[in-house]
# Entry
Amino acid sequence: MWKLMQSYINNDKETIQQSIVNHVEYTLAKTRFDFSVFHAYQAISHSVRDRLIEAFNDTAQYFTHHDCKRVYYLSIEFLMGRYLQNALINLELEENYKEAVLELGYNLESVYEQEVDPALGNGGLGRLAACFLDSMATLNIPAWGYGIRYSYGIFRQLIKDGYQYEVPDYWLDNGNPWEIERLDVNYPIRFYGYVRKIHENGKEKSIWEGGELVLARAYDNPIPGYDTYNTINLRLWRSLPAREFDFNSFNQGDYFKALEEREKAEYITSVLYPNDSNYSGKELRLKQQYLLVCATIQDVIRRFKKKKRDWKELPEKIAVQLNDTHPAMAIVELLRVLIDHENLEIEFAWELVYRSFSYTNHTILPEALEKWGIDLLANLLPRHLEIVYLINFIFLEKVTKKFPNDLHRLSSLSIIEESNPKKIRMANLSIIGSHAVNGVAAIHSNLLTTTLFKDFYELRPKKFQNKTNGVTPRRWIRCCNVQLAQLYTEQLGGDTWVTDLTQVKCLENMVEDPEFQNNWQRIKRQNKEQLKWWVKENCGIDINLDSLFDVQVKRLHEYKRQFMNILYVIHRYLQIKKTTADQRYAKFLPRTIMFGGKAAPGYINAKRIIKLICSVADKVNTDSEVGDLLKIVYLPNYNVSNAQIIIPATELSQHISTAGLEASGTSNMKFVMNGSLIIGTMDGANVEIAEEVGKENMFIFGALVDDIEGLRNNMRNTDPSQYFPPELNEVFQKIDEGFFGAVDELRQLISTIRNRNDYYLIGADFKSYLEAQKKVDESYRNKKLWTKMSICNAIRSAKFSSDRTIQQYADEIWGVKAFQIPNPS
Ligand code: 26M
# Structure
């Protein structure tokens, strides 16, 4: 019987202090009588790490002992954000540490600020993976995350003179107390080489050899659940040179050349690609993907083989979730290992593979769909290309049986795109190799089955599912909005809402309660104050606490339409200017409009939009006629840690993508949980948010997804001078006149949408956007009404907890149950 030993760690104040001081002395080799806040952070982290590791080891042992079915969540990105506060809260030790640390002379809040923000992700997809880990740990699901330990995370964004500058983010400068380097877990990874065919027992066998070998080394990151002892593992791979020397080079006496080759191996996991769409087809990127996949599959198989059992049990013991197509080569890799190394029959092996895999799609934007050129694959992964052809052949044969003489269908379903040069469609591979495929919000999942993957849907309708995204209430309420969390805990008589967000619905009877409303307003105001200081410190701008805090923070993208937002801001500014001074304050409500987000370094239009926002900000913020009626701020370097300050302080948040293009959005959920109202289109998860909180509590506008095609045709057939509403033409004219400077650049930007080229339909949606903005102002004038709307949003947001999402994945895709390890203390 599995037995848990007594824990040796106590959590009283004195023991905690002792452990911190010990780490100062013995881990950091600093004197315990005088250490800086930076060293305090390091020592505290090590002390918390000790507490994590015990639970982490016990959890791994417990899962092994119970031989439960495991989930492997494969993602090229994990956007974790800072660990310390989250770990303390999940361990329910924040109060103990606060006291202990205070007596040592430090304030825990300022200690948190010492941590670098690990930003190994671009945006939504990577952050979703992080929220999922938190929920899987909290729900006691036997899960592992697998990803890449990039040396450089997403670049740090500087804004100078209105332009974005990208600074490399070497985040490991000060070490990383949250990871465990596994010197003994290294897997060989092969690239290039050739396939040799041999004959064995009358059968042809393939041997992939030659080429280059590198090693993938494991770095483990413990992920504690909330209110549970379970602590799961995020295993990240780092590339290293293989141990064998390149004897060829050495023998020729080219010592430096040989070392250079070794350096190249380390380079593979050096940098995260900073795109969040727009697939680029770079070999290094494919190497990253394959390294992740190859090391992970070796790890998974090693764990499966620990117990002697039949291969047919594989799908009952593992569930592999692909976070988009980036790790999709895992399908081919597992099949390769099963047929080439384990000598299984192809049909049998294939059955095991597709029953084990499932795939989540995160976008329908065509430019983001991964397609690898045949030549690239033939060179880098020659055996995989052969296997892809094999899979495709077997698959298309089955299709032909069901739909004879349907060449059109065959070519749309094929993994191979018959272009010149031919390409491998990773989405098709992912669907064919998975037993379940899901979109990330209801509208998105519907679009998948009716447009992008229609033919696949007709072939296997039951394969397709929806799993509406969610976010973790631990980080996005409990950590970032401590006061709101306290209010909930007081009102609900306990803090079990943190793991069961449906409980906050019980506050429905409080929405009109004056005292509750007062508390609500007080909390928002305090959060606004905090953001005001952040803005002062980081942008040097004073913002008006009484103004409406209006925020759009997300990656810069034409489809997200930050452009439409700033065009509206210009319109508002022009209206203010047209109003006489004595009327202005009666007519306009003070607003602070904040933007934030990174543009992919090569995305020129996105960078021009940043420039436009900053140029408008310059003009407006220094216009004495406007005063504090209107302020525009570009919040630099939007990331997880400043999101934790920005989101709780927001009153209105913008989620205004062209209908059909934002798969889900997840920040919309975070904003709603923190009592922000949404101005948004019927797109992504906004649709379900409207169902939950009520349309009357949102500002919904714009074309519906079914209107889009018609509107695009309409635009093409309309005279450009007639197509845009007059308010918008007036704005264009001002930009054209050079009112905001940077004429050439800004003219180019507006020209992208002017000549029947308004693909994202800013012109078509602008009028209804104006109307929605008007309603915002009217509602904000009525403080009681606004507060009530804000409360309704927050207390009706339970559906968007990632606990709900993960429970659905567990029940409907993975078929795994919870295994909760007893707490030894
Ligand atoms: C691809 C190729 C090369 C380099 C980078 C990429 C790449 C990286 C990230 C492509 C897409 C990436 O992420 C897309 C993404 O973040 N999608 C968002 O996923 C969220 C979680 O499901 C959704 O909420 C968002 O709507 C969706 O845009």
Residues 122-125, 128, 273, 275-277, 279-280, 285, 362-363, 368, 440, 469, 662-666, 684 surround 26M (CB under 6 Å). Residues 161 and 614 are 8 Å apart (CA to CA). The chain is about 50% helix and 15% strand. The chain has a mean pLDDT of 96.
